[in-house]
Amino acid sequence: MHRLGSRPPASLDPMVAVTAHDMNCVNTVILDRMQSDIPLIPKLAGHLIAGGGKRMRPMLTLASASLLGYGGTRHHRLAAAVEFIHTATLLHDDVVDGSDLRRGKRTANIIWGNPASVLVGDFLFSRSFELMVEDGSLKVLKILSNASAVIAEGEVNQLTAIRRLDLSEERYLEIIGAKTAALFAAACRIAAVVAERPEGEEAALDSYGRNLGIAFQLVDDAIDYVSDAGTMGKDAGDDFREGKMTLPVILAYARGDAEARAFWLRAIREGENGEAMLAEAVQRMRDTRAVDDTMARARHYGQRAIDAIGPFASGAAKDAMIEAVEFAVARAY
Amino acid sequence: MHRLGSRPPASLDPMVAVTAHDMNCVNTVILDRMQSDIPLIPKLAGHLIAGGGKRMRPMLTLASASLLGYGGTRHHRLAAAVEFIHTATLLHDDVVDGSDLRRGKRTANIIWGNPASVLVGDFLFSRSFELMVEDGSLKVLKILSNASAVIAEGEVNQLTAIRRLDLSEERYLEIIGAKTAALFAAACRIAAVVAERPEGEEAALDSYGRNLGIAFQLVDDAIDYVSDAGTMGKDAGDDFREGKMTLPVILAYARGDAEARAFWLRAIREGENGEAMLAEAVQRMRDTRAVDDTMARARHYGQRAIDAIGPFASGAAKDAMIEAVEFAVARAY
């Protein structure tokens, strides 16, 4: 049994180490399959794919396969497919959000324009299905095509929730469960499919990924109110400026008095989002412990992720997967 | 043997009649599978799906299946998948092109904004793969995932060719072969897969669809220089205003003298695209027979489409598929 928080300081290094060899193979597939006779495609895709992402999702596929002692190579192609789905989503997200900075770099839509980002996203998405078809497992195809549809639904759900201060924590959890956690869950689950493990192990890995994904997104949402672009490669206050409803805002609004609610209406619904407003938002979150408690919620899901893989045999892969959760929930501090 | 042009006036009615019963089933699948708990999704998707499109691509799947005497129902789900891919492409296209009118109606991106169009497109694309996975044929999945990647490549290719007057007819044919004809070809080919026909028949139907698709796009490109919004549900001159390189422009430019080329440079590369410029462009195309000869090229591909299905048994389906080609190439007049 592992209690979250009992082993800091945490890092992603053990998971990187456990998956290093396989990740080389995945990177080869990724580089090979993002090629095209149309030069703009590898150029634009490469900007994001080579752009210093952690390859978290394919790493989860690889770590899960390692946890199960899988000795084959099918997961390389599928991990690349997972990364392509993620990359396509990021390209479209940046268009949808009008973002200009991701991981500390200018976004593809800023450099090459929205049309190219939309179309190269479509290309990568199609390529991911081609990779799955080459693998040939209808079960994997079902898991990942369903995850893709759920992600898109979650994104639309979030879009329709923009600037809606009456968003409930429940609906917010539905949104991040779809737009973020579904792919984490699928990335882990498919490892059990290729390793031909029983349904119970599939479900356990799905649960690990899903809860980790929720924890991950909650921490991301908290970070938006505590970090700056220098440390996180993301503009602090991006969510605030976009009027995005995240748990810190939901909690600060729910816990505030009439005067506080008036502030949040001005900031989120009416879009008064200058530096002074952001500073005040951060202060109000501190006063209501909204960010701290978003982190507490993240730890709750993190603990559930850890417990989900409790039944699996101990070893380097399991330790790494546990520490990845520790890392995910410790990032903001 | 059927010689193109020997049976005017042509209409799509015979193909509609041949596929009417099956199309009811396809429409049921489409309406069922565009649903979502997120109300914006069916609303936005329905705007385009119920918006008076001819359902040309799924109709081709159904007509091809009928040509082969296929008696099952698998093609209903797959035809719906084809229509979803097409709809997703249209939603993204309108964002990419900044279009405001399609089939005589305001486009989804104008009504609901680009972000929603991008995301609902992603949703429909994912749903199309879910439908294919439910059918369970890896061969169909391969054909359609490849077609999707090719379409996206073609769109990017076209994007990078914008305002490039040096575009060759060859590269233009590559572009429309990818962005339009690939899905026509796949829509026809998958009928042979579900009917379990030999490779040769698959290839013949692929060829019919591909050549029809090229003819179709050539005529569309010609129409942009002869029609008005009232008759075609498309703004005449859209391509001209966007600086899109299409065969009429390629021919008019190639056939013009130095003075003519200077005109096209101003119009296409520098974007001088007011009404007077459009009128002059149309006149110059008339003088160089650029539109007429684009139509002649279309008839060439149309004849190839008809000859590709020559070996199949005569009957209502074959007659309807031939007349669909006649209709495609006769549309402008």
Automatic annotation (TrEMBL), chains A, B:
Instruction: Establish whether keyword Ribonucleoprotein is in the entry.
Output: no
- Tell me yes or no: is Iron among this UniProt entry's keywords: no
Which domain of life, per UniProt?
Answer: Bacteria
Per its UniProt record, the required cofactor names are: Mg(2+)
GO function term, MF aspect, one? all-trans-octaprenyl-diphosphate synthase activity
* Keywords for the protein's UniProt record, in alphabetical order: Magnesium, Metal-binding, Transferase
Any one Pfam family here would be: polyprenyl_synt
Annotated InterPro entries: Isoprenoid_synthase_dom_sf, Polyprenyl_synt, Polyprenyl_synt_CS
Q: Which PANTHER family match?
A: ALL TRANS-POLYPRENYL-DIPHOSPHATE SYNTHASE PDSS1, GERANYLGERANYL PYROPHOSPHATE SYNTHASE
> What is the protein's given name?
Octaprenyl diphosphate synthase
- Specify the species: Sphingomonas yantingensis
